[in-house]
């Protein structure tokens, strides 16, 4: 570990902190329908879209109507993307003349990007045409992020409104999120990436002659426009197979820093948006504080583990390898231009945010580091998470926390002025068990059936970790992978699609039910018996609830993979 490495991490954290409040205020104004600086430019386009689609912006929906609109929209989106991938070979903008995508892979990819997961069982530049990348992957990265934010805003309205039968209009929230939030940031950031050398072209791949005289195909395409939204949306799908480790996606440290900001910015800002909309910014800061603690523990653990190097290599010292030669840390699977600190930070941000983009290969991280990456995803996206899903995941844990606190003091639980009754707790529990059910259940199946074992690239604990990581990533809508697992098979494509579907919609539906139930309540004035949820005590309590729930749920699974693999690694060193 170096001072420069820690400084890089500290500067990133400070930048996120500085961006949180102004962007949070902007989000609150956008979703409240208030005037923003972009209103004169985008307002006419917004109204034209409503007229074209027959939407009455002033007409709101109850939670069931909101949910049905969301589910219908996503069902149509999955069908549209599936059809695009299956018909790829006969559609335009396919200069490499790539064939159509197989049925199982097309379904997996369609579910993946519509659910904001971005799991990729394929190499982007060798599988998808420019049309599939732009009209398929890029478009759905926008829409999946906008719908996730819409769900979070609906839940915030549930806490903020008094005796309301409605929680907003899904179509309006989807449109405003796309037009006023995602598009403006993407335009500016894409232009920045172009200045750093990220290509943005419809020209085909080119042939180059290497110094050795061999011929090499260099893929390119409309990369910059997809790169920005994949990071900002929490989708994470790469134009190239090696994702943000590719120099055409992430060419240098300045681009790497901006990409990190794009991954975390919206998720952090939504906490401030929550505080503003419920009438107390301190509530938002308390949520961000819990996220910051979890993030700090994760990045410190990964950086310390990777900077310490591989314990098995210390045995080489007896063969004449000096301490200086081993002092660079574990550089396996990492890019020299980013180093250990930049790779550790990106890996933690990626798994903490549910983005899934990578600038190094997670399969090459040391066992403890891999365990931390798994743990980041196993806590249900609450460490910032993807735009929207991180906030409503944290609010679900807030409901559990105040419910437990209410049991301890013998008082009806409350959160930001709303009573938490049996119906809210039941829906919360349904949402929180969906991801573990899909993760652990499908992992167990894959570990005992032949099609699941056939995809393994490694045996013993690391092979098990590869399977566990795949289903954790899918159910947590993350999309990153331990790439040693060959997941492009009918078994994995279909079961991972199931995990992604459950991890997204089996969480969203209960969340919207909670939003509708809370919106119908009146707001209870604070009293001497009200549990303060904007102070350090609640921050510590909420942190404990998240860690305990995650630990009780996943510790046995982690013990069979990363933990035992780490002990085996130490055994090599000690004996």
Task: Kindly describe this structure.
The chain is mainly alpha-helical. The protein has one domain (3-574). It contains 19 helices and 4 strands. The chain has a two-stranded antiparallel ribbon. The longest helix is centred in the C-terminal third of the chain and has 39 residues, at 536-574. It starts with a helix and ends with a helix.
The percentage of residues in β strands lies in under 5%
Cα Rg: 23 Å
Share of residues in helices: 55-70%
Structural class: mainly alpha
Task: Give the overall shape, derived from the CA principal axes.
Answer: globular
Number of strands: 4
Spatial gap, N to C terminus: 26 Å
What is the residue-averaged pLDDT?
91
**Helix-strand topology string:** HHHHHHHEEHHHHHHHEEHHHHH
Strand order of the largest sheet: 1-2
Q: Major sheet: size, sense and barrel closure?
A: 2 strands, antiparallel
- Uncertain spans: none
Highlighted features:
575 residues; two-stranded antiparallel ribbon; globular; 4 strands; mainly alpha
Question: Can I get a quick summary?
Answer:
With 575 residues, the protein is an all-alpha fold.
List the helices and strands and how they pair.
Blueprint: H1 3-31, H2 39-53, H3 63-86, H4 103-114, H5 124-127, H6 130-160, H7 170-195, E1 206-209, E2 215-218, H8 223-232, H9 253-277, H10 281-307, H11 323-326, H12 339-353, H13 367-378, H14 389-409, E3 414-415, E4 418-419, H15 422-446, H16 450-454, H17 460-475, H18 490-519, H19 536-574
Antiparallel strand pairs: 1-2, 3-4
């Amino acid at each position: 570990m170096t001072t420069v490495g820690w400084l890089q991490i500290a500067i990133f954290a400070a930048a996120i902190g500085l961006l949180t409040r102004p962007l949070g205020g902007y989000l609150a104004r956008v979703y409240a329908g208030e005037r923003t600086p972009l209103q004169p430019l985008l307002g006419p386009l917004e109204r034209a879209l409503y007229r074209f689609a027959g939407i009455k912006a002033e007409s709101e929906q109850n939670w069931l109507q909101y949910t049905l609109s969301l589910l219908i929209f996503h069902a149509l989106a999955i069908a549209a993307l599936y059809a695009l991938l299956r018909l790829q070979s006969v559609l335009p903008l396919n200069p490499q003349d790539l064939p159509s995508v197989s049925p199982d892979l097309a379904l997996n990819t369609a579910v993946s990007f519509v659910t904001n997961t971005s799991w990729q069982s394929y190499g982007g530049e060798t599988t998808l045409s420019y049309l599939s990348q732009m009209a398929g992957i890029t478009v759905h990265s926008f829409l999946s992020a906008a719908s996730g934010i819409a769900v979070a805003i609906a839940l915030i309205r549930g806490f903020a409104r008094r005796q309301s039968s409605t929680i907003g209009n899904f179509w309006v929230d989807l449109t405003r999120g796309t037009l006023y939030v995602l598009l403006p940031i993407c335009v500016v950031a894409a232009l920045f990436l172009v200045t750093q050398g990220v290509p943005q072209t419809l020209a085909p791949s080119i042939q180059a002659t290497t110094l050795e005289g061999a011929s090499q195909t260099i893929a390119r395409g409309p990369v910059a426009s997809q790169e920005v939204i994949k990071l900002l949306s929490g989708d994470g799908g790469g134009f190239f197979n090696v994702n943000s480790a590719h120099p055409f996606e992430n060419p240098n440290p300045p681009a790497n820093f901006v990409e990190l900001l794009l991954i975390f910015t919206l998720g952090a800002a939504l906490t401030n948006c929550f505080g503003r909309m419920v009438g107390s910014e301190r509530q938002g800061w308390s949520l961000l504080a819990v996220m910051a603690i979890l993030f700090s523990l994760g990045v410190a653990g990964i950086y310390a583990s990777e900077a310490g190097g591989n314990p098995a290599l210390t045995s080489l010292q007896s063969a004449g390898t000096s301490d200086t030669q081993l002092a660079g840390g574990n550089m396996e699977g990492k890019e020299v231009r980013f180093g250990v600190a930049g790779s550790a930070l990106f890996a933690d941000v990626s798994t903490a945010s549910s983005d899934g983009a990578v600038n190094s290969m997670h399969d090459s991280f040391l066992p403890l580091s891999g365990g931390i990456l798994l743990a980041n995803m196993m806590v249900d996206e609450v460490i910032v998470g993807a735009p929207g899903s991180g906030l409503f995941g944290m609010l679900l844990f807030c409901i559990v926390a105040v419910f437990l606190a209410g049991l301890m003091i013998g008082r009806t639980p409350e959160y930001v002025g709303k009573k938490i009754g049996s119906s809210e707790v039941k829906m919360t529990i349904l949402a929180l068990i969906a991801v573990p059910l899909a993760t652990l259940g499908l992992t167990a199946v894959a570990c005992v059936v032949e099609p699941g074992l056939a995809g393994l690239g490694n045996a013993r604990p690391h092979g098990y970790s590869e399977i566990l990581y795949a289903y954790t990533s899918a159910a947590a809508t993350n999309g990153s992978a331990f790439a040693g697992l060959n997941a492009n098979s009918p078994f994995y494509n279909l079961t991972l699609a199931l995990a992604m579907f459950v991890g997204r919609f089996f969480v969203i539906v209960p969340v919207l039910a909670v939003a509708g139930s809370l919106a119908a309540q009146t707001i209870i004035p604070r009293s001497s018996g009200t549990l303060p949820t904007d102070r350090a005590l609640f921050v510590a309590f909420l942190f404990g609830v998240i860690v305990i729930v995650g630990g009780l749920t996943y510790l046995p699974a982690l013990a069979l993979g990363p933990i035992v693999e780490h002990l085996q690694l130490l055994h090599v060193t000690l004996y």
